[in-house]
Fold this protein.
Amino acid sequence: MIQVEKETGKNFEHSMDSFVHKVDTVRERAANLQQRADELSSPQVDIKSAALEELHSALEELHVAEEELRAQNEELAIARAVAEAERQRYQELFEFAPDGYLVTDDVGIIKEANRAVASLFKISQQKIIGKPLANFVPIEERRCFRAKLNQLHQLDLTQEWELQLCNREGATFDAAVTISTIHDWEGKVIGWRWLVRDITVRKQTEAQIRNIQLQNLQLQEAARLKSHFLAIMSHELRSPMNAIIGFSQLLLRYPHTSLAPKQENMVQRILNSGRHLLTLIDEILDFSKLEAGRLELKLQELNLAEVVTATVEEMLSLAEQKNLTMEVKLDLHNPVIFNDKTRLRQVLVNLLSNAIKFTEDGGVQIEVREVAENKIAIAVKDTGIGIAESDLGHIFEEFRQGNQTLTREHGGTGLGLAITNRLVNVMQGKITVESNLDQGTTFSVEIPRQVVPQKFRSFDA
Ligand code: ADP
């Protein structure tokens, strides 16, 4: 096509030159004739002279036409230069495009190919021309490829089509092709333009994502089964534990049982261990429910001041055993809040019992106040052993205990704070901790005055 354009241009220039040459020759001959007529003097000469005059003016007209032709020729040359520059630009775009471009005829023979496609097929640009595109399709896929080619005659444009291609060395890769049809001036299909992209990396990433999703599902299922198992086990363990605790209490209280002091001590130990074990079972049960997102709050209107005072009173004897002071500071204009009484009490008990457990001198203080709009802040402060900075970041993780030797001395599972943290989260609040070693610790809980029931909450709430 480009070649044809060049040829036409050359021919045009050639005919233009010969036209100009001919006009010049005729003009020269006319001038000669004019000169010879001037030298003669007869009536015939007048006729000749008139004819020559006529010829002259015809020549002038020809001259004007020649000028016009020249001007048109110049315009054409400029237009040709512009078209050539455009063609060059598109050729470069085609050539250096990062994606592979091919042009095939209507039976799939490659007519043009850019660098990207040649390097994709590991073949030189010259050698790829004239080869059937099917050569770069793995043998087992060729039948399907040909069927698709046949379909292309009916379809004008296809959507992205994913298929396996192979390079000249036989290595296959996943490719995505987009095809557009080339028609001749009568609308007949004469070939296709192919955009070919290597999507091996994309495919691998998709496979990895699918794998991760599968693993994720398996993990979720495993976590669900674990929680279910824990919930059932904890439930099953509670019944015998209740029997152990109940009968130990009976043995100690029964007026006719005359237990020897040693035996009484043993039963008391059974009772203490039984209670401890029951607490652990409850913690595990709570944690498994929280982890599975199955813990639902039983929301109700309650008086926060009353809940705090009652909880502190329950804990008072524990503090007294260690000669610790217990102080309550309530700064509430309106003590009515909307929350789960049992779970809120559980949060307070966990924080207060830890404060007492890890304090040897001084005391524990609980401060409750209203902050911002509709927010309540509860701070539990102690003057105890404090928490090392390195432990502070992990303190709310399950089974984490600071200073393991102390833990053994104080017992506990390392689940208390993890449960507290999750409970506060379920209450749409947050918990933070500040501590200095040997000086004390402050746990601060911030909860909304009104906890919104789960079913009314949006996902991002
Ligand atoms: P545990 O059942 O072991 O008490 P928790 O989750 O309640 O588990 O606490 C985890 C760890 O955090 C404790 O073992 C302790 O090291 C530390 N900790 C919690 N509260 C306090 C506190 N008030 N003072 C010092 N250390 C604390």
Summary: The CA atoms of residues 439 and 453 lie 39 Å apart. The chain has twelve helices and twelve strands. Residues 354-355, 358, 382, 384-387, 395, 401-403, 407, 412-418, 441 surround adenosine-5'-diphosphate (CB under 6 Å).
